[in-house]
Each structure stands twice: as C-alpha cells, then as structure tokens.
Amino acid sequence: MERARWTSRTIFLFAAIGSAVGLGNVWRFPYLAGRYGGGAFLVPYLIMLVILGVPLLILEFAIGQKMQLGATGSFGRIKHKLSSIGFGAILCGFGVCSYYAVVMAWCLLYLIFSFSLKWGVDTEGFFLNQILHLSPQSLDMGQVVTPILFSLVVVWMAVYFSIWKGIKSVSKVVTVTMPLPIILLVVLAIRGVTLPGSLEGIVHYLKPNFSALLDLEVWHAAASQIFFTLSIAFGIMIAYASYKHERSDIAKSAIITSIVNSAISIVAGFVVFATLGYMAKQEGVQVSNYISQISGPSLTFIVFPKILSLIPFASAFSVLFFVMLFTLAIDSAFSLVEAVCTVVSDKYPHLRRQDVSMYVCVTGFVAGMIFTTYAGLYYLDVADHYITHYGLLFVGLLEAIAIGWLYGVEELRLYINSVSEIRIGRWWNVLIKYIIPVILMVLLAYTFIKDINTPYGGYPQKILWIYGWGILVVIGLISYLLAHFSAPKR
Ligand code: PHE
Q1: What CA–CA distance (Å, rounded) separates 453 from 442?
Q2: How far is the CA of 262 from the centre of ligand 1 (A)?
Q3: Taking a C-beta distance cutoff of 8 angstroms, is the pair 447, 428 a contact?
Q4: What b/e sequence results for 86-118 when a residue is b if at least 16 CB atoms lie within 10 Å of its CB, and e otherwise?
C-alpha cells in the first residue's frame, strides 16, 4: 500500500509545530524561567536548544523521512534489536499522553466553568478539593472523580476524531489547531501587557540572575524542557517525517519548527508574568511572592482563574484562555497517539487505520484513569517526573548513540544535505557522536544521584521505587522484549 502523505510542506510544518507547541510552552517554560534565574534561564535554554534540540530534531526528521517508517521501524532498519529504542520512545510518549489528556480534561471543565466564573474567590480550594478531591498527602486512590472521567471521555473522542484516518485527518485538523491558539495567545499577550502593574511582572521575568547558571540543576531543567517542548524522543517527529517524500527538505523545517516553538514560549512568558504583575499590584504584594506557587497545575488552574476573574470582561477572557489551552494541547496529544498508531500500522499494514486509532485511544483512556482518582494529581506528578527526567533523556541518548556509532552520522548528514535547503556542517556529526551523549549522560547521572539522596517531591521513597522507577523498568522491559521477539521487517 502507498504510504499516506502530507498534503503540503506547510501542513507538515503546521503538524510539527502543533505537536511542539503545547502546555509545555504555556506553563512549563514560564515557571522554569521564573524559578531558575529569570532572563538568565534563557541562556541555558537557548544553548540547549542549539546543542541538543535542533540537532536531535534534524536527526529525527532525517531518520523518519529516510526510512519511511515510524520510530521502531526506522531504528529497526539499522539493526533489528535497535527497534527497542523506538518502542521505548513510543511507550514514554504513551505514558505522557495518558496524563496529558487528563490535564486537557481539567481544561475542558474549566472552559465550562468560565461562563459563570464558577471557581469563585478561593481558586485553590476549588481546584484541589471540589474538582480533584485531592486526598491530602495520601496516595490512597479513593475513587474516580466522575466529572473528570466524563471530560476525559470527551477529550479522547476529540483526539480520536482528529487522527482516526491517520495523516489525512491530521492534515485537516492542524490547519485550525495550530494557528488558533497562537492567535489567542497574542490577544492575551496584548491584554496582559496593557494591564496596570504588568511592567513589574515583566521585569521579574527578564531580569537575569546569572548566578543560577552555576547550578547543574538549571542546565538539567533546560535540557529536559527542550526535549519536552520539541516533542523529541517520543517517536513523534520520526513518525511525522515518515509521511514526507524522501526528497523533501529536512534542516530548514527543523530550524523553523524550533524557532517558532521557542518564540511562542517566550511570548507565553510575557503573558504569564504580565498578568502576575497585575495580580501583585491588585493584592499589594511583590511578584516574587507568586513564584513558588506558579508551577504546573497551580498556574493554570489556581493562579490564572484568580487573575482572570479580576480583569474586565472576565468571563470572555476566561473562555478565550481555556479554548487556547485546549487547542494548544490537542495537537500535542494526538501527535503522541499518531506516533503509536504509525508503529502499529507499519507492522500490521492490513489493519484498518480507524481500528488502530481506536485501539490506541481506548488503551490511552484506560491507562489515564488512575489520574482521575482522588490521588490522581500525585500520580501524575510522579509519572511526569520519571518519564520526562529519565525516559526522554535516555531515549535521546540511545538515539544519538545509534546514529552516531552504529548507523554512521556522516552518511545521514550527506543524505540531509542532499535534500535540504540549508546545509549542515560537520559540527552536527561531532554533536551527535560525542557532545550530546556526554551531556545527556552527565545530566542523567546528576538527577539520579539527586533523586536517590532526596526523594522527589517529598513522596515516600517506597512509592517512588514501585511506581516511578516501576514505570521506567516496565517501559524498558517491554521495549526489549518486543524488539527481541518481533520479526524483522523485510
Ligand atoms: N511538546 C508539547 C508541549 O510542549 C508536549 C508534548 C510532550 C507533546 C510530549 C508531545 C509529546 O507541551
């Protein structure tokens, strides 16, 4: 059967950017910037973008496009056993997707609440108690929270219908889900910077604290942010590139994707800090008071609802904000699912694409149910930590080693240059072969030692061993076994 194709190069770029731009740009990046040295965080962030992000994105685009297969097939072509790298990638992606969809389910509920500003004044109590039913400090799951579960069903239906016919559906959906949230973000940025007090927030965002650069933790945060934000090491970019023609451009597409994605993160930072500045002024406190509270869910579901209620036309801006978040996230979510579907369809081409998409979505929904329980937020936090801090960097490390040492970087570079509008020099070989593996090994070792000494997030060490490391061991084992027992592709 003829492989499906993107309808145009622009649509491919829309899909790649759509995958890259997601919740990571709006909550993760600004929070990291606020926490790790303000404007100075941009230094490690941009260095990691250039040293890790762009070269690995080029690698993923190149291998997918050259092999014309998803993540497992592409690495399997080099050496059958290497297909385990692809399995590792899609399993990590699948893990992320199962909780990413739950965050989207919260977004959807908040979108409905926006019409009446239902969260009231105590946004924290509303989110943690009334919505999540979070059991304080107890990892006891209690039961499933029904509204979240229903919302999750709707999310998965939206994901399913975005990808049910594979790349054919994705091509249509991304024409809306890529540009729309970006336009809304710009609207919110304009609103944000014109609010009284915004300047103070922005100063806090951009004022560099260069001493932060001496801390390895900051570099690790920058590196894992780059992987997360560019959707690297999930098999997504490999799958997406495999639907391009073999002679299409690689290097320029990777550079455009990276630049647009980072630009959006930086704009999102302005939105967040400008509005925090406004809130600080309203409440008569310093912007720095909020920094410890703005990570992850708190920013989106606790701080933002509060700020949104304060500004004129509160309901309209709240709707706009949650529509933006939802549409921002959906193309990242379905790209993860698409990466898995591509691998399954490569292996079993006789299966109908609709069926493959259905199996993957249903499995993703079931896997995500744990995050809809009373202790869901804790499990989500732990899963996120272990997958993004170890899983991704480890898969990235294996990808660089596989290409650098087993496939041959020079061969891939010559292929990239034979099709690309921008030529890449031999520096790329050096990065893939030596520099990236060394950086990733140092960062992995560093986090490992840190986590052994201080249990992540103050959770009981036992839970972290069983659940956190457990996830990684299961992913590793399944990847190894699947590669070991699956038949090589002809
Ligand atoms: N890149 C997306 C973001 O920044 C998230 C994502 C992670 C997408 C993993 C796919 C895979 O939010």
Answers
A1: 17
A2: 13
A3: no
A4: bbbbbbbbbbbbbbbbbbbbbbbbbbebbeeee
pLDDT of residue 167: 87
Q: What is the pLDDT of residue 182?
A: 92
DSSP-derived secondary structure for 426-443: THHHHIIIIIHHHHHHHH
CB of residue 262 inside a 6 A radius of ligand 1 = no
Two tokens at 77?
């072509």
DSSP state of 247: T
Q: Of the candidates 27, 59, 149, which has an alpha carbon nearest to the alpha carbon of residue 397?
A: 59
Q: Is 373 helix (H, G, I), strand (E, B) or coil?
A: strand
456 DSSP 8-state letter: G
Ligand 1 within 6 A of 233 CB?
no
Query: Is the shortest distance between the CB of 339 and ligand 1 below 6 Å?
Result: no
Instruction: Tell me, in angstroms, the distance from the centre of ligand 1 to residue 237's CA.
Output: 11
Instruction: Find the 196 Cα to ligand 1 centroid distance in Å.
Output: 33
All domains in the chain, ordered by first residue: 9-485 (1.20.1740.10)
Which residues of the chain are modeled with pLDDT < 70? Answer: 1, 137, 292, 295-296, 489-490
Model confidence pLDDT, tens digit, residues 401-423:
999 999 999 999 999 999 999 99
- 440 neighbors 400 (Cβ within 8 angstroms): yes
Q: How many residues does the chain have?
A: 490
